[in-house]
Design a protein that fits this description.
By secondary structure, the chain is an alpha/beta fold. It contains 11 helices and 8 strands. The longest helix has 18 residues.
Amino acid sequence: MEPVVNEGIDGNRLFLPTPPLLGSRRLALEHWCDLAIPNDAGIGNILMYTRVVEEVAMHAGHPLTLLTAPLKPAIGTIDDEIAYPLWLSNPFVNKIVNADDIDEAIMKTINSERDNLCQFGHMITNICVEYGVTQRVLRPSLFLSEDECKQALYSLAKLPRPILCIHPHGTSSPKKNHPWYEDEWIRLLHDLPTDISVIEVGLHTLEKKNLPTWRHPTTIRQMMALVWASDLFLGFDSSVAHIATAFNKPSMVLWDHIRKIEIEERWQSGFGPAALSRWSYQQNRNLMLLGEQRGEIRRLAITWIKDTCRSMRS
């Protein structure tokens, strides 16, 4: 079956005339795999499938064989990035079959069906329902090795606790003319109590702002481990926010809803207004960057950081 894809970005790209995941199911079965997983979207999109893999594996009673290909585009990574960074150390994955080694047309079909789903729930729910499972918790399912955890802890060992991890970047984050592009971050960092350490993570070579923070180049796995080793997270709606949620970190997520609508409406008309329900998590503190006049969001963020850190010390 050839994928049916609208190549234009005109607000009508995602839905296909075929039933959800029809080609993906067929291809997985043909190649003796349990699930077919897309690989062409942003990291956050693929993270939605990590929870689905865990739930299907638990339902089946055994780890799964996945049909997919190396994550791409491989943006913002350093030279020695591994092919499957989101699946390493995952006990619910038996093995991965590289579809590109069989036929490059396979991933075109799988990727074309990535959003051809019911869109009434969270993206994790939207995918799970197609496989007849219900998520036990609403967050991605990520795993680190013991060595990765230890290395992250050692790399932060000299920083006083608690440690705030920030990610002032992301595809739907504000543009340069917005106060939260850089200025409000600088003010927030200046106003934080001196006994709170701050580290910054982001995609290597792509995400860089002039902030007075501790940061060094990392692989995706190393970045995940740093988020895990931190005490709390503050950042824009992004893959890193999903990662922090996966590790159950206290998280405050900032949403530029105007930017989110701009991006979502390019791909599918009507998706923009539901962006928060499809991508956010109720366990996080979600703040919309709308109507702010005199640093209200910054003051709310600082209060949340102080209160969260105080609860850790008590």
